[in-house]
Structure formats: C-alpha cells, structure tokens
Amino acid sequence: MTLAVAVACGPSSHDEGRGPREPAETGAGGSSGAATDGGAHATDGGIVATDGGTLPDLPWDNVAFPSVVDPDDNPSTPEKIALGRLLFYDPMTSVDHQVACATCHSEIWGMSDGLARSVGHGAGLLAGPGRNGPNVTRRNAPTLWNVGFRANEFWDGRAASLEDQVHFPFDTAEELDTTLDDVTAAVAAIPAYATLFAEAFPDEANPVMPVTFARAVAAFERSLLSHRGLYDAYVAGDRAALTDDMLHGMSLLATEGCTNCHVPPLFSSERFVDRGVAPVPGVDDAGRFEVTKDEADRNAFKVPTLRNAHDTGPYFHTGGVSDFDQAVREEVAFSVAHDGAPALSDSDTSDLSAFIMKGLFDSQDSPTRPKEVPSGLPVPVDGFSIRR
Amino acid sequence: MHSRLGMKVGFCAIALGVIYSPACSSDSSSTGSPEGGVAPDTDGSTGGAGGKGAGGAAGKGTGGTAGTATTDGGSCDVTLAPSDDDLTTIQGALDSKVKSGNTVCFSPGTYKLKNHITLAAAKSVTFQGTGAKRDDVVLDFTGQTNGDEGVLVTTDGFTIRNLSIKNTQGNGIKVQANDSLFDNIKVGWDNSGTADGGPTSGGYAIYPTGCENTVMQNNEVYGAADAGIYAGQCKHVIAHDNDSHDNVLGIEIENTLDAEVYANEVHGNTTGFLLDLLPDLQQKTTQNYYVHDNHVYDNNRVNFAQANTLAATAPQGTGVLVLASRDIELTKNKIEGNGGVGIIIVSYDIIDVLAVLNGGTASTPDPTTSRWPRRVYVHDNTFSDNGNDPQGSYAVFAVATDGGKKTVPYNVLWDGILDPSGYGGNDGGLPVGDAGKATAADAQICLGETEQKSFVDFHGDTSLTDPAGWSTDPTPHKCTLPALPSLTP
To answer: What is the pTM of this model?
Structure first.
C-alpha cells in the first residue's frame, strides 16, 4: 500500500496542539491554477493573483509542491513521528551518550549543524558552531528539510532510503560509534520507549526492533517540510511577497541554469555533479564514485536543496564556504566557465542570493526540541537554542 | 564552586552561534497593502491603529519615532477575535488569508495558544491589537507545548503593536528578518523565577536576530530567564523608552553593528545591561553601541536563568556589563542602587580564568573574534547607592564601612586583560610587530571625570584575588573618544 501524505494537511506530532491547517492556499504551488503540464514555461494566462490580476509568469513551469510518498512498509502515523522525534533527540544513540541525531541535524541550524564538517562523539553535549572534538566527519551535514522527497540519502547517495540511512551513523566511528542493534536493545529496556513503540507499531508482536527504530526516525524525518515561504506565497497569488530584487534573482536562477539541478519547486534534484568544489586538504573523498565505482561519478556529489539555505551554511559538501553570497559566486563562476552561463554583476549576485535566502526560507515547521527524553539523559544542547 | 562573577564550571564549553547572513538585506522596501484587499474578514473591522507599511518606520536612518504614530487611520485587512480554537483562528488566517502588506487586527480578549504562531509566507505584515491598551489583547501561551517561541516571524517589514504576549515556553517573540518594529507591546512571564514559573520562564522576551533596521520602543518586558530586550547579530538597532524589569538581563545587545539604546527604564533585573561580543557567531564584531540616558536601577534580582546558559553567569547586582565588545559609548545614564557595581568591563578571557579557577578548562578560542573590550567611552553618567549589597563575585571587591557594612567602593570595574596582539595593529592599536607590548592605555577604556574617581583595574588575569595587584590609577583612562552618532533623526 502506498500512502500519500498530503503536504499541507497532515497533522504531525511535532505539530501537536496545532489545529489542522486550511488547505494549502499558501503552500502548494499549483493551487492557484496555472498550467502545470510539462514542457515550456507556463505562459497561458499566468497565475491568477488574489486580487484578480495576473502575476508575471514564473521563469519555469509552475509545478505544484509535491506530496511526500511514504514507503509501502512504513506509512507515517502521528505515533511513529512522535516516537521518531524522541529517538532523534535522544543521545543514548551514541557511544558516549552525548550525541543524538539532532546534534548534527538541529532545528536551529536548518536541520544541519552550522559546522563545516560535523563533529561526532567525544565532544560533549553542546552542538552548533564552536562544537569541537576529535571525531570530525568527512563532509558537511546535509539538511533534513524536505528529505522525504529524496530518492536516496547522503552526499554520495549510498543509502537507498531514509530507513536505510538510519543505520549508517551508528556504524561510523567518528559519528555515533555504536550499532543500531545495541542501541535498540538498550531502548527496549526503557519502559517509556516500550510503550511508545507499542503504540507506533501496534501490529508488531515485538515492536522494539532495529527496523522499527529506523522506521520511526524515518517517519519523523519525512515530516520535515519547508514549503510555505515567500516564493510559495507568490506562486499562490500574493504578488507583493517577492520584491523586485527577489523577482530578478528568481529569473536569474533560471537564466544562469541553476534550475537545471536545483529544480523548482523543491529546488533540488537527484543528480550527482562535480562542481569543482575545492576538496578539504587531507580528506580523501571521491563522492558518488565511492558508491558506483563509475569514473564518471568521481567527485560528483548530490545536488542539495536551496530551500532554507538561509539556515544551512556553511555550504557545499565540504562546508568550505560560510558566506552564502560567496557560495553563489562560486557556483555562478563554475557555470560561466563550464556551462556557458552569462557572468553576473555583484548586484545580480545579490539579487540571486536574496531570492534564495529570503524567498525560499520557511522554517515554520521546525521540530520542537524536547526538554527531556525517555532515556533520562540530558538532551543535547544547541549553542543557540540555549540562548548562546 | 561558585566563582567570582557567578560564572560556573562548564561555561567555557558553551557553544555560541547563529548563522544568518548579514548580506540578506537588499529588499527593505515596504510594499504596502494590495489594492482591493485580499478576501479580508469583514466582521468587526475595528478600524484600529493601522500601521500600513509600518516596517518602513524602522527603515534605514529613520529611527523609531515615526513608528509611534499608532492612529493613522489605517484599516484591518484581516480581523481576528478570540474563539474556541485560537490557534486555528490565528494560524489559519496567517496561512491562508494574510497577504504581504496586510494589517492583521487582534480584537480585544485573550487568545489561548499551546503552539507557536508563525509567519513566513507574507512580508510587511502588521500585527495590531485594537484594544485601548496593550493589556486588552493577550496572546496567552500558558501551557505551550510546541515551538521555541510564542511568535516566530521570518519575513521582512514586520510590525507588532499594542498587544501582550505571555508565558511562552521559550522566547516571547522572535523575528529573524529586517525592518521590524516592536511598538508598545508587553512580553513576559508571570511567576518567573519562582517554583511555579521558574523552569518555564522562557528565554528572550523581544528577540530580533539576524536583522537590520530594528526598532523596539515603548515596550514592557518582564520575567525573562534571559534578556528582556535583545538584539543579536543585527545592524542598525534602536531601543528606546522600554521598561525592562525582573529579567535576568534587562537589555542585551550582542554582536551587533550600530545600536542606539536610550531612555529605557531598566530595573529589578539580575544585570541591567549586557553589551557583548561572543565568539563562534557569524557576526564577528561589534561597533558603535551608543547607550545613553537610561535609568538603570536596583538590578539585584537573584539569577534564575537556566543552568549552563550564558545568562546564568550574569552577576547579580550589576548595572551595566560590557563583555569583549568595542566602540561603545555609555553616557548620561542614571545608575542607582545596583548592589554589586554600576559598570563592569571584562574580556572573554575572564570567563576562562574563572573556569580554570573552578577546576574546569578554558574554552577553545575562536581566532576570528576578539576577546578584549576596546574603545569603551564611559562618561557623564551619574551613580548613586551602587555596591551596597555585593553578592557572589562582587564580595571580593567589598570593603567594610565604618558601620561594618560591606560595600564595593568603585563605580567602574575593568578586568585589565589586554589583547596580546596589541589590538591588531589598527584603529590606533600597536604596530603588529609590537604584539605583547600593549599597556592599559592601549585598550582605550576612556573614562570621564566622575568615572575616573571611582574606578579599579583589577587585573583579572594575574590578581583577581589579590587587591594588592589592582590599580585605581586613572591615568591610562584619561582619554576621550569621538561621540557616537545618534541613529534617531
């Protein structure tokens, strides 16, 4: 069975207490009735604005924001998402009982961690920039915003699903350095978790298993949607939502060819590309090649989403660039050199940056960090959520 | 393990940070209201206090006074009233009715909310309470379970006026965008710092961050377990005529460029002002905090911040704490009845000194952020009755009076820790080759005549606990700095 979760309607557990949203008037891109069929730009009549006029055409097809499709064997439920959230924030996952998923995927940092490269166990409870320790990972922590739309996970796509992905950080020495089996056994011994697993997986005779652990976390991650920003409002007919600068930036995103990879409305794609990002000295990283062993994939990395780039720096798989305008300049320079894209002025770059940083920013549905978790361990403290 | 400045072991490890790009600023224009409205509610439009395009009031160089005009005849594009399900009422309207440039009017009454309300998909929006006074409209978050703040706004040009927000589980109102105006709102926590309210008394009350052109005026904030009025990693901030009381920190300006803070009543907090530069943030410098004509008094509240936060280290009984920041002018403030000291100026190093004293370890330095205060001009302030109840760390500075009572006999304390690089060879600093040769005068902690008479450099790196190593010689501080400009026209 495939269960589609309606993007703007499905209550999720991290939304507890919030009433059901009205239909996705501001959220779903296509709800205002523009042409959404493939092919050329939507030109027949444009988008109907809420004041009865028409908006300028988008520089790309007006494709509605999609719905998340759950795997057949892991339909989302509020109970699973609630359980997944607690597991996500519980540091019992790590060998030192101080690192949770949220350490490197924090709501404070765009579901990443604000670090160039993540720092695993042995660095204390505190997360965010300034976290410092002996176990530094190879790559920048990818955002989990809209991760439910991904065909595979990690910068190199080595995990075939979110459920599959959950296993990897456990087994990685510089991350959690445990095993999912061991942690699940420890979880099973905690009565509060046993109850929550039973509620989330009522059909399982033995609900606390590695596979259900992974499913709960994946269900939680699938609930992290960013789709109600100024761009979405604009598409829905709020003609004042984007400034002239942002509108110009939006058009540049298309004319520079950015949208070939950062495809609207997710502003991402499942492509792996080599964009000439400077490697980290001393770090051996061949990207997608490590998975496929295909020379064509050497140094190719997955295209990240531009949504919530506002919060997800430092940028690129290396985390090598902290300033977003600089990241834009480097990407544009590569396109100019290799793809024949027109060069941009500083003002153009600024407009392009403004569209991405402001037009594609929506963190409204950030999960709420629990004050406590069933293990009783201290929840990792983000340097910012604790007010520095 | 309680240390001199009340700072505790573990502080050194606190990571600090936020990442909002300072470059995201090119669209400060206000678009105004769409013609013809956007399917507005028509029931009970109160014709309240308007505020069209009010975000522009906070625009570049205009300052706050323009925002005080709250009766310009503007109308309500969307009008809300209390209901059985206030969250759905408000969030539903924000999600489906409110368009850019709209004014959302809140009719009088109490709105009960267990979840934060959020605005990301419309800009230049005004929240307007339409009661006779701000207490008439209350967004009551008592029992909130979701959201790290009561109100979260991430789009530019936001204005909020004439209403109250209380008892959020985290921060009161967070605005992470440019061109914001907070005018005549009240944000706080009932019973904060008590057994009933302590653990839930939130963080910041009014919390703009990653912002440009922010004005906070005529507000009342109380009971925050961190700062009542805060601005962090912002540019061009004005805070005036606010009443900040019974918080851990009254007003905090952090890692910000160009701030003017004046005519505020700051009282009953643990520490009245914190003017700081913190490491590991995107914004690496401070510049031009013009803090004048404030009334800073009776900031003697016992610290009730959450453990392991920076706020938990705020020393009780402090009027103004300057931490590692530079280009600051403190003048014409009336500083009274603060039990520890009127003004204390310290480096970030002192935090490591204290951590080590307490058996902890020093923090990992952020080499890109200065740790030493510089160019701090303190003059023409008035002081009375400070230092009469030295608690915690301030006891080390106390001397017995004739009556046997202990008092701190200084109005201004400086830790005297110097930048070992000689202040980087610029801005009047020593040539780079002279690193390590800086003297007290090179810090440019400049004092007016009044302040010179009641000053001590306590050499926190070498003689924190040894008064024999302290210096009350004002000579290195007999200097002036250029007056900072007012940001208010």
So the answer is: 0.84
